[in-house]
């Protein structure tokens, strides 16, 4: 009985110790998105850092609303993805259909059968918010606008946009079935900015089409008046009121500010400006790999070589409060034994980045090269080479 009692007691103690064992701290954000100050004069808005997806400010970000021509952020995204995949090229000729030419609202007045390059159509969409050009490009990429809209909704789902549904490619005809949210528009806009070529168009203030005969003027006034502004899209109708997805980049930090249903055009631009000002004044973006720096090679067991070059994941970005950039400390933890074979980009450990007692980021450490396993024949050859060098 005494032995059984001791055994039960040991089990109970082990369970208690496991319950009280320290748990590794979760990543702590330095951001306070719950700001009491009223930064916007609109029913819904959000401020997001593009590379990390970190939300810096939000105000009813998931309220479903009509978004007018801000719809074209998704149209632009699908065009850029088609360009990057090689499906289309900037020099391709696009022929305007009678349906595309019939669009009202903002337009470049395409005639049925008129031809323009993809690049000129893209200018018309991005700079002048051409509804006719958007439909022409939708038909060029998918065959019909409904087929293109299907692609829009599918891509929205892939991006995690939970409260978005499109019924057209330009936002012109609004019904209860065509809607999005500030959060979803920000997600789409951030993805669009992953295609650097788009800023060749979103940053243009004035341009022309048709050999200089038709002038284009950017509907996004921040491009001219806000330091670092590089996009993205305005939108307004009597139903949607005044909407804007605005982006700006300073000191390597790319921000996206979305304002929906502002009462006036001045309110949407002023609100977006205040959001961007707030982000740039209070936060900085840090790339984990830059902070970790170059790493010494790690030992490999059973490989054709004794070490492997290692590297931090270059895609990990995080937000810190201004002034804390130099307070970040890094701890590196590698696998206790790294055995060959090793594949390129194989995870071999991780780095933990701390500010004081707060864990602010975790970054994978991966192999920068492959290391093959040492075979018997390779080992024999190595021994023979060593023996020949000695004689």
What would you say this structure looks like, in words?
By secondary structure, the protein is of the alpha+beta class. The protein has 2 domains: 44-283, 3-Layer(aba) Sandwich (Beta-lactamase); 293-376, D-Ala-D-Ala carboxypeptidase, C-terminal domain (Peptidoglycan synthesis regulatory factor (PBP3), Domain 2, Sandwich), CATH 2.60.410. 33% of the residues lie in helices and 25% in strands. It contains 12 helices and 17 strands. The chain has a 5-stranded antiparallel sheet, sandwiched between helices. A 4-stranded antiparallel sheet has the order 13-17-16-15. Helix 2 crosses helix 5 (131-142) and helix 5 (131-142) packs across helix 6 (145-158). The longest helix is centred in the N-terminal third of the chain and has 19 residues, at 2-20. The N and C termini lie far apart (72 Å). The relative contact order is 0.13.
State the helicity in percent bands. Answer: 25-40%
Number of DSSP E strands: 17
Rounded to the nearest angstrom, the distance between the terminal CA atoms is 72 Å
CATH architecture call of the largest domain? 3-Layer(aba) Sandwich
Mean pLDDT: 91
Per the principal axes of the C-alpha atoms, what is the gross shape?
globular
Strand neighbour order, sheet with most strands: 2-1-9-8-7
Low-confidence stretches: 1-24
Sheet with the most strands? 5 strands, antiparallel
Radius of gyration: 28 Å
CATH class of the largest domain: Alpha Beta
Number of helices: 12
Give a quick summary of the entry.
Helices cover 33% and strands 25% of the residues. It is an alpha+beta fold and 391 residues long. The strands form six sheets. The protein has a five-stranded antiparallel β-sheet with strand order 2-1-9-8-7, with helices on both faces.
